[in-house]
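ok here's the first one, seq then struct tokens
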Amino acid sequence: MSTEILAQLGNANSTIHITTEQGSTIASIVTLPIIISFALSSYLMNVYGRRLTNLILCAPFVLGWIIISLSTQVWSIYVGRFITGLGAILASSSGIVYIAEVTDPKYRGFFLALRSLAGCSGFFVTHLLGTFLHWKWAAAVCALVPLVSFVFVYFTPESPPWLASKGFTVEAEQASQWLRGGEADPQIKSELPVPHTHKLTIREWKKHILSPEFLKPLAILFVFFFIQRFS
């Protein structure tokens, strides 16, 4: 959306005039809350569950787009972009976790790839709106999309693995049966994790974080995304 906003703000008849530095800030500020977002997303998903987290994350999207749509000064565009960036990064991690946990292992790869396709389609539609509409109206239309998402997520069950990890075994089996669309399957119960009653100490957390099982995937992902972004 930053491309369309900057293009229209650069017009002589624009009600908001920006400098080159301000335009650069509008484009880049959306990435500022990355570190905060991932830490917050992990906490919300663990404490409140995947489904409720995805419902909560609709709020910053709606709020951010409304602020952008009603902006009359540059600083309010900054605020709106920051909030939508926060929501986008939070939703990115929570959405992947939810999809991975609720889908059948046979189709999990397909649905995770479909998420990328949906994201690219969203970018295309956003650019299309910005091409034919004033950027304020385009932002207003974008504010409606999270509301649709809220309705769909509201009527879906919580992640079965998360329910099982919190001790809600019966609810986890019921959610799995609803998601798989069939009768009770012994395989469903075998896929659910065992509830954890022991809380990790700081020393145990440190041991897990410094273990090869944690560091190797982290390094691979870091290198992959670094090359992807800078290539």
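and now the second one, same deal
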Amino acid sequence: MDSKTTRRGFLEGLVTVAILLVLVQTVLEDLAVFLTWEWRWRRALLLAGFGFDVFFTLEFLVRSITAASEGRFARYLSKERGWIDFLASVPLLVFNSGPEVLSLLYGGAAFVGMAGKLKLLKVVKIIRMARILRLLRGLKLVKQIAYIDSPMTQHHISRIAALVVTAELVVLFLYSLLPVFLPLKGVEERYTTGVVRTGQVFTEMGETLTPDQVLTLAAAHGEVLVVRAGGQSLYSRYDDSFYDRMFGPHDYAYYREGALEIFFDMRPVHIESARLSLLALSTVLVCLFLLLFVYAPHFALTVTDPLRVVERGLSEPDYELAARVYPEYGDHEVFRVARLYNEELLPRKLSEGGWTSMERIEDLLGEE
């Protein structure tokens, strides 16, 4: 084995490990939001997602350059699943994890000033849902399943998995686009509209606000975190250590009108988004699991195994095993061929002590 083959095997193994890790990271990132983990853990998962997107983007570029230099770029994109490498890397780095990391570097809360800002929230939701494209990477693991050593099984399962998972992701992505083009309001939109209205209630009271009134209003509006007027804090739901531990830059919204400043808790919005994302992730992962570990063995037993027995029986003189025929599938074309082999060809082979030439096989099949 030369050094080039060894190096390629190592890189393929590294990519396989990275695919498994990114699937875990994608689920954990939404789970952390849904369960309101501390910000340090959520930040670590976000940075890990950015690292994976950079890694897979570089992998796609390297594979593309290599394929182009060898004159097989079109084959790489189609038959070698290069389109999966692209969709699960470049768009996510450019539109999702990259901007999120930049926002961490520069910090700052979302500014809430008018209901028209909801359009931005919808776009952010779409980009977040697009993260499930990372699950397309799971399709690249099909060829790594140990029992799928049949080219036909591998090709068949890969094609079905690609069609099913891609169809699910497209439907989910289009569903997330609906609020942008249709007058629909989800939980996120209703919550943000309520935040804007709460800010307007505080604004209408203006300079007449007293600490008792602020306390009463804040108690009636659980989304209010901090209220300031003229640079002085009138109300805070939690202490500073809690904010430092539990809140990230995107977990609160900032409303300002004149001297009045209000910080709102936006975590319920992210929790709802994470819930929907986890539902989508779970659906795709369950489909992948069923295809790879339930349907693939079934296909191997009922299609490729009988054909392999017949093939070996025809091509190997000393191979004398009969193909197993399942009664419940007896009318299937594959098992009809297997039964013909068991009842006609195999007895002749055994009675004549095997065959050694293709001409003899053609005689048995009645071919001229």
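notes on #2: The first helix runs from residue 3 to 34. The chain has 13 helices and five strands.
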